[in-house]
Amino acid sequence: MTATASKEVVLLLEEVNKTFDGFKAISNLTFYMDDGELRTIIGPNGAGKSTMMDIITGRTKPDSGKVEFGFRTDLTAMNEPQINRLGIGRKFQTPSIYIHHTVFENLLLSLKGPRGVFAALFSRTTSEQRDRIEAVLKTIGLSDKAEVLAGSLSHGQKQWLEIGMLLAQDPKLLLVDEPAAGMTDEETHKTGELLLSLEGKHSIIVIEHDMTFVRQIARKVTVLHQGTVLCEGSVDDVQNDERVKEVYLGRKKKH
Amino acid sequence: MRKSVLKFEYLLVGVFALLFLVVLPCLNAFPGPNSWLHVSDFTITLYGKYLCYAMLAISVDLLWGYTGLLSLGQALFFTLGGYMMGMYLMRMIGDLGQYHQQIPDFLVFLGWSTLPAFWKPFNHFAFAMLMAVLLPGVLSGIFGYLAFRSRIRGVYFSILTQALTYAACLLFFRNSLLLGGNNGFTDFKFVLGHDVRESATQRGLFVATAIALLGVYVFCKWLTTTKFGKVQRAIRDSENRVLFSGYSTANFKLFIFILAALIASLGGVLYVPQVGIINPGEMGTEKSLEAVVWVAVGGRGTLIGPVIGAFAVNAIKSWATRAYPDLWLIFLGTMFILVTIFMPKGIVGLPAQLRGLAKKIAAKMDGRNGEPKSVGVDAADTIQPAKSE
Q1: Domains annotated on chain A, with CATH
Q2: End-to-end C-alpha distance for chain B, whole angstroms
Q3: How many domains does chain B have?
Q4: Which of B244, B383, B387 has the CB atom closest to A84's CB atom?
Q5: CB-closest option in B228, B236, B244 to A121
């Protein structure tokens, strides 16, 4: 924190704890992130990565601790849609898109704008919205798929569409959970480039297992272990850290 | 492909509308009873009943097919609407009942000599209609608010709706509720000044029901094209995504749940004067389950499907309950199982399913002749028409 005191902190977790049936999923987790940063979080299975995402997005309430967005807004008192409307978008590990809607409609429903029932009843698609959707389609490389049913996209394209759906909301903070899971090498590389191109425009947290992918995108890496931050630093720092080798890389024989 | 399916649907709706708004009423009114063209009063009331059921079916589908909420209690709202209409009709009997008193017969039987206060406003048709909106509306609103706010989903939601209708059914069976107990209401005489036993009145009710159904259809069609309709289907396909896109899905589900209750209630209001009786048996658990079968058979996730299903299943029921009265429930269950396994998109999806099958067979034949065609393209083709609307 001291090194980047000049920058604004976009996300803050302090002394956060969460226990599920006696299992300490998150324990004394303290985590800061700067505005505009691209952060990668790694950690073995059960390290608490997904629980951490759940806590940030309002799916799970922490037992104790502080969770704040932009140093001001207390996230623990809000539910998922409210937190989303603040500008926090989340991409799930398995693509969650609307398979019976076209790609265009998927993005239309995600565009920033009023979210009420009556607004939805009488809303019309404006030309600015169309332009915005076209811009997003271009970013995620699906311009020629606008009128295709989302369910018929390939796995990789579905993942990109979901990232596009987050971008359509123009979020301040993007949480991306294992975007490369199940992708081919080429798709993985493309996803990495997509995320890198967003750097600076949005603050991004990426959770990932694939070390090649992590090397491609990583700036600052946070290693989670047993629900708390084990260490932080560049990929090389982290990979040379003895504790990390012990708990994480040592187990990753399969990679 | 989707456009042509839509065109076919509109054509079908047009034919239906012409048949029910013009042809059947005219054939009932003009040719003499002995003419081969004559449509009997019995047929008119029977089809009128089916039209009411079709509204109930649309209300089930709006929840199940479009929003992914399987309500097993829609018959409750149908029956509540029916009771409100029934209370008005009971007041219109006047002193023509068995006991020739100014209050309904069952109240005389229970020892009442004056009308209970809550019955009095039902002398007015407008009040009864207001209540037919308010009672199901408020009940569905409270139930929906509690259920959706607590994030009750899937099978748990279904079970709760089933419990709700069962509880209401038990309540309405009680004489102390002063709504006729297990006999409910019957022996109606007048509706809006017309004798309900006259064929002209029944014809009028029939046409009114057809217009109401057409109105419900057009409204729902519009609803599905709005952004609201898109959010509805998005909730069905991936509620998490909708939630994490900033929509309070509970509000959307509540709105559609109340709307569906009102549509069901409208069906019930029109049902009672045509069928001539309403009792708590109509909110029994199996009635709501039947409505689900209509939708499954007709084709869920479409608006024409529930209407077709309500007619088809009830036509079979009318026949089966006469020919094999004991076997009807077995018929119904078998139908549901067969449709679920072999016709997941119901009658509406059948043409597309058959086309797909024909293509598959053709592809196989080609393959056998040593000329493997591009099966991939065929398969993609067959997916398209199966998509509803």
Answers
A1: 2-95+171-251 (3.40.50.300)
A2: 10
A3: 2
A4: B244
A5: B228
Angle between helices B2-18 and B199-225 (to 10 degrees): 160
Q: Which of A85, A91, A109 to mutate to test the interface with B (most CBs of B within 10 A)?
A: A109
Contact B118, B179 (CB under 8 A): no
Residue B373: its pLDDT value, please?
A: 45
The answer to whether residues B146 and B87 belong to one domain is yes
**pLDDT-derived band at B173, boundaries 50, 70, 90:** very high
What local confidence, expressed as pLDDT, does residue B79 receive? 98
Q: Kindly report the nearest CA distance between residue B234 and chain A, in angstroms.
A: 5
**Are residues B270 and B335 part of one domain?**
yes
pTM: 0.90
Determine whether the interchain pair B245/A108 forms a contact, defined as Cβ–Cβ distance below 8 Å: no
Inter-CA distances, B77 with A53, B84, B136, B172, B258, Å: 41, 11, 6, 13, 10
Same domain, B58 and B115: yes
B377 and B289, same domain (yes or no): no
Q: What is the pLDDT of residues B352-364, one digit of tens each?
A: 899 999 999 998 8
pLDDT tens for each residue of A41-55: 998 888 899 899 999
Are B50 and B172 part of one and the same domain? Answer: yes
Same domain membership, residue B353 and residue B328: no
Given an 8 Å threshold on Cβ–Cβ distance, is B241 in contact with A165? yes
Q: Which domain holds residue B359?
A: 349-389
Can you tell me which residue has the tokens 């099978």? B155
pLDDT per residue over B183-197, tens digit each? Answer: 999 999 999 999 999
- B85 and B212 assigned to the same domain: yes
Q: Residue-wise over B150-163: b if at least 16 C-beta within 10 A, else e?
A: eebeeeebbebbbe
Tens of pLDDT, residues A160-194: 999 999 999 999 999 999 988 888 999 999 999 99
Across the A:B interface, residue pairs with CB atoms under 8 Å apart total: 80
Provide the pLDDT for residue B78. 98
Q: Are residues B56 and B197 in the same domain?
A: yes
